[in-house]
Specification:
Elements lengths: L5 H7 L9 E2 L4 E2 L7 H4 L12 H7 E5 L3 E6 L2 E6 L8 E6 L18 E7 L7 E9 L4 H13 L4 H6 L2 E8 L10 H12 L4 E5 L1 E5 L4
Parallel strand pairs: 5-11, 8-9, 9-10
Antiparallel strand pairs: 1-2, 3-6, 4-5, 6-7, 7-8
């Protein structure tokens, strides 16, 4: 299954506090939960457009303002560091492979592993999105390029990337292929991300970068 409501879901998803209860004949409210930012991200997420809380848990690993966002797999990791931002932005880590895209499609089509969404802005309506498509790969860097491309152009997912202010591609591999960055396939994908205000970068095993420098 491929999510058909990803753009709407990512734009509207937020943490919600439980409603305050009324008590007494005059309907006076009991002291509610104080809405501190520290408490906010401990609250459950609002109901997704798909109406499936289980699906939501599989798609969204977290939504908060943590200083570092890390996704890792089989000894390889990518970290986006926004610790120098003041205030820090909301960040969401999405599972693309196995979350946004599940079987049977997940086992038969190209797609990247994760997406990191950075939501900038002071209010929900003013937020602008920056997206990072992450592929954690072995030595098949050429295949990683195909996976990023497929995710970028997947009909159900493309509206989210198209509405994002910037879109970046990141590949973390166990060993890079000599001269891969000079190939037509790499240069073509590099241009695709550049047209979206982003860039394409590749690094071996551990890749960490500061958000302010991307």
């Amino acid at each position: 299954m491929i999510c058909t409501e990803l753009k709407e879901c990512m734009e509207k998803t937020q943490h919600v506090f439980p409603k305050e209860k009324k008590t007494g004949k005059k309907g006076k409210r009991v002291a509610g939960v104080k809405k501190k930012e520290a408490d906010l991200y401990q609250q459950p997420l609002c109901q997704p457009p798909c109406k499936s809380s289980e699906r939501q848990k599989g798609c969204i690993e977290f939504l908060d303002c943590r200083p570092k966002v890390t996704c890792q797999e089989k000894g390889k990791s990518y970290t986006l560091d926004q610790g120098q931002e003041n205030p820090r932005h909301e960040v969401m880590l999405l599972h693309i492979d196995g979350g946004v895209i599940t079987n049977p499609e997940a086992s038969t089509m190209n797609k990247c592993d994760y997406a990191i969404l950075v939501r900038e802005g002071a209010s929900q309506t003013e937020k602008k999105m920056t997206a990072f498509l992450i592929e954690l790969k072995g030595k098949q860097v050429d295949h990683a390029l195909k996976q990023l491309k497929a995710t970028l152009y997947q009909a159900e997912l493309a509206p989210l990337w198209e509405s994002s202010a910037r879109v970046f591609g990141r590949i973390v591999c166990s060993a890079s292929v000599p001269r891969i960055q000079r190939t037509d396939a790499y240069l073509a994908m590099e241009e695709e991300f550049r047209k979206r205000g982003g860039s394409l970068k590749m690094q071996e095993v551990v890749f960490e970068e500061e958000y302010r420098n991307v």
